[in-house]
Amino acid sequence: MSQYQQDLENMAKLKASQGTAWNAISPEYAARMKTQNRFTTGLEIAKYTAGIMRTDMAEYDADSSQYTQSLGCWHGFIGQQKMLSVKKHQGTTAKSYLYLSGWMVAALRSEFGPLPDQSMHEKTSVPALIEELYTFLRQADARELGKLFDQLDTNRAQGLDTDDIQAQIDNFETHVVPIIADIDAGFGNEEATYLLAKKMIEAGACCIQIENQVSDAKQCGHQDGKVTVPHEDFLSKINAVRYAFLELGVDDGVIVARTDSLGAGLTQKIPVSSSEGDLAAQYNAFLETTPVNSIDELSNGDTVMKLDGKLVKPVRLPNGLYKFKENTGFDRVVLDCITSLQNGADLLWIETEKPHVGQIGDMVRAIREVTPSAKLVYNNSPSFNWTLSFRQQVFDTWLEEGKDVSAYDRAALMSASYDNAEIALEADEKIRTFQADAAREAGIFHHLITLPTYHTAALSTDNLAKGYFGDEGMLAYVKGVQRQELRQGLACVKHQAMAGSDLGDTHKEYFSGEQALKASGDDNTMNQFDVVD
């Protein structure tokens, strides 16, 4: 028996137990409303989606072609439309998540207005967006199920078979999917991280991504000036997130440990080593130092330490930060990742400066020498110039293979004049297969684009404004937007229904019967879209 059928039976028994007072209540309507609102709390969502992620991770371990994907969404409506589209085109929401980007929260959701990705926005805006996203996804469930219930009623009234419709209701796949949520560097100390993680989990987050930058000096992963913290500091925040999951009963919650060490050349403090070769000693071994042969070589305020049996002075900048040695990023990333996995993290995030399967794969193979099950969440970032990067990668490969590249200027490969050239076509094919290739060869379990809907909103608005305020006038909207919505079957062409008017009408009918004043009558202009093929 399906959950819907079981709810229907239970509602009928409950109504009968109440005598005549509940005569106006329909058990079927009550069961429908319960089915349309499957999740009543964010914690229910977090527990449900954590199970999905754990299953997906196990399936990826068995078969690397089973990777997962997401797009960053900065508003509930964007997340809703994304999942409706995924389900429409793919037939399922399986392996498709949402990503909550701290960058987009800062740029689009702060009361201060647009802010850089430096943890300057209100920390409460992060759980608020998680709750908003799930509110819209739950509304997508209610809307789609509502259409099925309407069809069920129509078939019944016309004496038609209802088995297929009932089966679709009984086996309905929810639009509620996992969210990987960005907590930046924790917005403070480990207690602050714990408190914010709790709010995010209570809002529905089953997966929290945290980075090893200094919280009060946090920078976007694709900008300069990044400062990392010692391993002990980062691990305390991983512990804080795990305790938050356990306290709230999400025992299989997922933690993504992000390292920015590949592009970070600075640290804020020198950890204290208590034994030879411990984490602090390994971290300090990466510091750029100068030997100290005499106390006379020291200036007022200099820091001195014993490293590998020698007295050295770490190189310190005027702002008090310490420098790492050049070309140590790779090794620091590997140590970061191994340490995080050995101390409670479930997945890794390596922030890179370019999308290169070989570079990512080299780091993952080094990590897997110690932790064989290591796998990544990877940022398919809009900060990369994908076109130029992959054309240059093809150019370099051809050059190594001895192929004639004299027709191409490597520095100018972004030029549109190359768009139909062989090098561009091969580069585009590598971009197309990047996710599958990287999942197979570089251990990437989850591919995400952090800021795609930020860019699509800007691009589509620019195209509309260019035509609407130009010679096309109203045709710019009709041809470029509405006609495309109709041709491509976008549900939001009926924006009143998407905003909940049909659901409201149904509820009014439940509550008021024939007295219900409904909006979806003959004079509703949305009906104009019913006749379009």
UniProtKB/TrEMBL annotation:
Its cofactor is Mg(2+). Can also use Mn(2+) ion. Mg(2+) binds at D182. The keyword Magnesium applies. One of its GO terms (molecular function) is metal ion binding. GO terms for biological process: carboxylic acid metabolic process. This is Isocitrate lyase. It comes from Brumicola pallidula DSM 14239 = ACAM 615.
